């Protein structure tokens, strides 16, 4: 019986076991890593949305879905734009100091182009969807109503720039998603323009 240790054979067996173990680890890791990556459906849900606004009339509201949320796009009239600065004293955050919009929309109209408004149609109180109420002084909203969005769940009110009124449950203005224009009539919701943030 030979009691000598064959170190060459031991190194070969150690190397072979390491290679087989490494290959096994890779084989196990590939399905795991693949399962963590988002599905095609999930990627599509988060993808930017392209909206043609060429047929959007004055005062008309268009609703599209982006990331499972309703996004409103509407064309404001000159009268609506003239009314916005007169409401500042009635609003909780008239200058949009709470970050609910990209920096390029932190202005009086909360938009890139004054006449086109883009915002997420979800109340910042409990996530209900406010209704579009463009009419002036309807009986159910009072003589001081200048048009805007009304959340029927708990009575929150927003002006035509999505700015929240004082004394309502909603704590902040409606969210403005990242967006930009591609030419004159296409709005891309879900991504900033190159160089903007």
Topology:
Layout: H1 7-36, H2 40-46, E1 49-52, E2 61-66, E3 69-75, H3 78-83, E4 116-120, E5 131-133, E6 148-150, E7 157-158, E8 179-182, E9 186-189
Antiparallel strand pairs: 1-9, 2-3, 3-4, 5-6, 6-7, 8-9
Structure, explained:
The protein has three helices and nine strands. It has 197 residues and is an alpha+beta fold. The chain folds into two domains: 1-37; 44-189, 3-layer Sandwich (Rieske Iron-sulfur Protein). Strands 1-9-8 form a three-stranded antiparallel β-sheet, with no helix packed on it. The model has no long low-confidence stretch (mean pLDDT 85).
Task: Give the tags.
197 residues; alpha+beta; Rieske Iron-sulfur Protein; 2 domains; three-stranded antiparallel sheet; 3 helices; 22% helix; elongated; transmembrane helix; disulfide bond; metal ion binding
């Amino acid at each position: 019986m030979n009691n000598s240790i064959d170190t060459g054979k031991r190194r070969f067996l150690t190397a072979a076991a390491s290679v087989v173990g490494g290959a096994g680890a890779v084989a196990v890791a590939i399905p795991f890593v693949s399962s963590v990556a988002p599905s095609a459906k999930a990627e599509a849900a988060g993808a930017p949305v392209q909206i043609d606004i060429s047929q959007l009339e004055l005062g008309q509201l268009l609703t599209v879905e982006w990331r499972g949320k309703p996004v409103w796009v509407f064309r404001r009239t000159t009268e609506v734009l003239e009314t916005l600065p007169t409401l500042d004293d009635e609003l909780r955050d008239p200058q949009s100091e709470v970050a609910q919009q990209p920096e390029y929309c932190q202005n009086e109209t909360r938009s890139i182009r004054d006449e086109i408004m883009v915002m997420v149609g979800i109340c910042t109180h409990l996530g209900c969807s406010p209704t579009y109420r463009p009419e002036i002084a309807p009986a159910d909203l009072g003589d001081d109503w200048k048009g805007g969005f009304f959340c029927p769940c708990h009575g929150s009110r927003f002006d035509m720039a999505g700015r929240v009124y004082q004394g309502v449950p909603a704590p902040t203005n409606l969210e403005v998603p990242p967006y930009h224009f591609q030419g004159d009539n296409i709005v891309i919701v879900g991504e900033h323009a190159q160089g903007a943030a």
